[in-house]
Predict the structure.
Amino acid sequence: MKLVKLEKISPRKQWNNEQYDFTPWLAENLQQLGDAINMNLELTSTEVPVGPFFADIVAKEVETNDIVVIENQLEKTNHDHLGKCLTYTSVLGAKTIVWIATKFTEEHRQAFEWLNENTNSGLSFYAIELSLLKVDTDKASVVFNVVASPNNVVKMAHSKGNLTKTENLQYKFWQAFRDAIQNDFRNLQTPRPQYWYDITIGKSNIHISDTYNTNTNTIGCRIYINSSIADTMLPFLEERKEEIEKELGFAMQWNPRPENRDKVILIDKGFDMEDEQEFKLAIKWLREKTIVVHRVFSKVVKAYK
């Protein structure tokens, strides 16, 4: 393999104007940013009016539908853009704010670090320095360097005193589960003290939603279909039920609660979660089922129009 020297060039040479050049490019290449912050992003809109200002990009995290606001600045950071970031977060109800600039002052980087350490665990603030590396005479690579990001361990530690026994069990399980699958999937969500853990399968409004029921000690792997497409997606999948279960190698429960607007297809199993070996077996079982369900359903839903 031949090694070459990379030359750092100004992003202004590629994008002269933030609004008309860089923002449209980023909107079309959003997952490059998503890879940098370990999120699966889907574009909602650009230049979204917020009072007298405009948020450059509004997106959503696919697994949670949480709002993500992206503020672009093709120059060194300033107080004006910091204020806009905070305004957009509050007015739009964003859970994640991403501030992109070519250079972060230490004061602004520390401001985002402070926000990550002192706001609740549901809010995330990312500071990202944008650069271009020239790799050939007419080619360059975009680099998103994360200089401030949420420390989820610290945030969880801050909120530990407010967690119930059930929430502590959930957090422990999902943390262990994420560790087990970190090499199997991209853009995994941060473990939270809740009933479910979501993984994308490549299409909006349908995803894997694994579950841990602490009341019954039941672990489940389910396909979760949002009500917005359930009326067409569920019949689409049911028509292929025999083919799907043959490839899975096991049967699933199809729409066990037909009265619900959101639909699920699931497989579950009980474990003695207080036993250390059973806990490990539960993680192993759920990992195996999640991998095969992801492989089969992500392929099938590609044909859905």
Summary: The first helix runs from residue 18 to 28.
